[in-house]
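Changelog-linked ticket: magnesium ion example.
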Amino acid sequence: MKSGDEPILRGCGIRKAFGSGDAATAVLRGLDIEIRRGEFVAIMGPSGCGKSTLLHILGLMMPPTAADELTIDGVSTLRLNDSRRTQLRREKMGFVFQRFNLLPVLTTERNIRIALTLRGIHPDGQVDAILKDVDLLDARKKKPGQLSIGQQQRVAIARALVTRPALLLADEPTGNLDSGNTQRILDLLRRFRDRDGQTILMITHNPQCTDWADRVLQMKDGRFE
Ligand SMILES: Nc1ncnc2c1ncn2[C@@H]1O[C@H](COP(=O)(O)OP(=O)(O)OP(=O)(O)O)[C@@H](O)[C@H]1O
Ligand SMILES: [Mg+2]
């Protein structure tokens, strides 16, 4: 069952500890999070507080140690098997990281197209449209090593969004960028949110993110303040 005001993501009581027995360290301590459709939410918090760990759990790349609920676009995920979880991740989510993870031997165009073919979608105009959105039509035949850092991050964003994911998860997408490129990436994300209703959850250390995000969640002691 889906309705317009059902949150795209709801996590309750999320716990994560690394190690076991006496050596176990609790990183997430019963954290709750809810993201509504079309929201641009930023997560902030000191280094090592568990932001990336949380994003990996929400992105179904790492299981929580325990959780009461983790629902994504109406699908309860905690009891899914591996293949169903992978399928849900591919169907619903796009990812952008601080290091762009582009395939160095592929051109811009092919780095983006691969996101579609991985999901069995036959490319039909989407690649051109997204290249235009991120202002990289001129760079379509270039490989990542021939692009600037800011351009590479725009390719990564195009690759994450070309499939129209319900939720974009971004881990410090501007962490490697100078202030000009940071502003440009945040403007771009904001534009996808305003124009397409793209839901975005972004980790950042940039205190200026409040200028772009609708809401900022501050992490402290394994929960949100
Ligand atoms: N695979 C792992 N095994 C053991 N400990 C881990 C693992 N991944 C993360 N940790 C620990 O969990 C804590 C949180 O790490 P995490 O990467 O989530 O922090 P972060 O908030 O993203 O920090 P930063 O802002 O520096 O990126 C750290 O103490 C880290 O050492
Ligand atoms: Mg991190």
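Closing comment: Example verified and attached. The radius of gyration is 17 Å. The chain has a mean pLDDT of 94.
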